Amino acid sequence: MSFRKSRSGLAVCAAVGIALSAPAHAQSEPLSAQESDPRVMGWMDGFPPREDKIITQPDSVYFSFPRLRWSVCHLREFLPTEQIGRGLGAPKPLDYVAPHIFADMRAEIDALTFTPLNSDAGMTWEQSLDANYTDGMLILHEGRVVYERYFGCLEEDGQHAAMSMTKSVTGLLAEILAVEGALDDMALVRDIIPEIEGSAFASATVRQVMDMTTGVQYSEDYSDPNADIWLYSAAASPLPKPDGYEGPDGYWEYLQQVQPEGAHGDAFHYKTINSDMLGWIVSRTTGKAVTELASERLWRPMGAEQDAYQTVDGKGVPFAGGGISAGLRDLGRLGLLMLNGGEIFGERLFPAEVVERIRAGGDPAKFAGFPTIPNGSYTSQWWVFHNENGAFAARGVHGQTIYVDPTAEMVLVRFASFPQAQNGSIDPTSLPAYQAVADYLSAR
Fold first, then answer.
1. Using alpha carbons only, what angle is made at residue 83 by residues 82 and 88, rounded to the nearest 5 degrees?
2. Tell me: the pLDDT tens digits for 68-126?
3. How far apart are the first and last CA of the chain?
């Protein structure tokens, strides 16, 4: 069997954060959030679980819906990981509004109504949580937690796959280095990574990699069995390569053979290989893995409650494009850092210019193909909405979000396990819901 045809055994496991649910397990009418709740389904329940309730690797069904709803909280049970350490000190606790206010605000937020995009039917905030298969929701306003709920596989002490929000961590680290002068974002990639000379990435600038405006060949069309995503995932898989495999071994070997497609700088193209190229640049510049740098510059100084972890390929290279799993509150801390221009708990972790650059966004004229973000742009691996509130976000498939609204002084973090990967299927409900909460908080 060729590695293309066996992609369900290799690719889905290695492409966490960018993968769709396996097509063979797709359902035209998926179970509801309540019906697919892992506790209702009984996944991995018992000692031992029933045979039909066991979710295993490498037969790859673990990332198909509804198994997905359990697996997003258990990725390190399927894949090798590297720790993003929080250190040995006590966590710095988040500030909460008084309990009676918290209870009142939860009830008021749950009852908020809005109209989804392209719909005439109203919806409440609480209904939207189920509609989007929410696993965790945290809302901070003016630095204090005003709303927090957990569903599905997630408990308050659990960790959940961040998917492509990982890209935003990688991009933030790169932007910090650029602002501090340790990384020249106008340098050519080949001048930092000489091994990339034979790749289309060689002649791109670091900034073009950061903003995903490179002209590189790479398809993430999961419905196409010959798409590049499957080749990339087979290369990155930590499982033994099948007999006859002759492709690249690991993320970095794959990056060295990427072919050109279009011109660098012409347009934004969402291609995950940019994030892993950026991770390599960050590591070569600092002499540290992205996991080590994230611990040093973010998790430790921001007083994280929990270690995070990041999946790695067969050579131990962290998946900079989608491998992080973390706690809900810790991503709330990351959101506070972005809201407050690099400060948290009275301490500055990085220059304010880092966030100023990200909030300014990329070139909207180069941004297309995302109808739910009609005026958007992308820079430093962050999505910028260019709306009246100046919102920007880290986003990942199946509904992961850190949504920062400077005007409302709001940070919203959502973990989810929506049956379909594309956020375009979730945005019509999510984005108006976020705005409804922002309007509510602004009016208080």
1. 160
2. 999 999 999 999 999 999 999 999 999 999 999 999 999 999 999 999 999 999 999 99
3. 62
Strands (DSSP E) found in 288-399 = 308-311, 324-326, 343-344, 347-348, 377-379, 382-384, 392-396
pTM of this prediction exceeds 0.90: yes
| C-alpha to C-alpha distance for 65 and 62, rounded to whole angstroms | 8
Q: Which two tokens stand for residue 149?
A: 């709920």
CATH match of 95-156+327-341+354-443 with 3.90.180.10: no
Distances in whole angstroms, Cα of residue 52 to Cα of each of 33, 121, 207? 20, 39, 48
Please name the residue ranges forming H helices in 189-343: 189-192, 206-210, 228-236, 251-255, 273-286, 290-294, 328-339
Query: Where do runs of H (alpha helix) occur along 237-296?
Result: 251-255, 273-286, 290-294
Please check whether residue 43 is in contact with residue 70, taking contact to mean a CB–CB distance below 8 angstroms: yes
Looking at residue 123, its amino acid is M
Residues of 52-74 as b/e, b for ≥16 C-beta within 10 angstroms? eeebebbebbbbbbbbbbbbbbb
pLDDT per residue as tens digits for the range 321-369: 999 999 999 999 999 999 999 999 999 999 999 999 999 999 999 999 9
Distance CA(203)–CA(337), nearest Å, equals 33
Domain ranges of the chain: 7-79, 95-156+327-341+354-443
Phi first, then psi: give them for residue 382, nearest 5 degrees. Answer: -120, 145
Q: What is the DSSP letter of 254?
A: H
Q: Is the pLDDT of residue 194 over 50?
A: yes
Encode pLDDT of 15-32 as tens digits: 454 333 333 334 468 999
Residues designated as active site: 164
pLDDT in tens, 361-377: 999 999 999 999 999 99
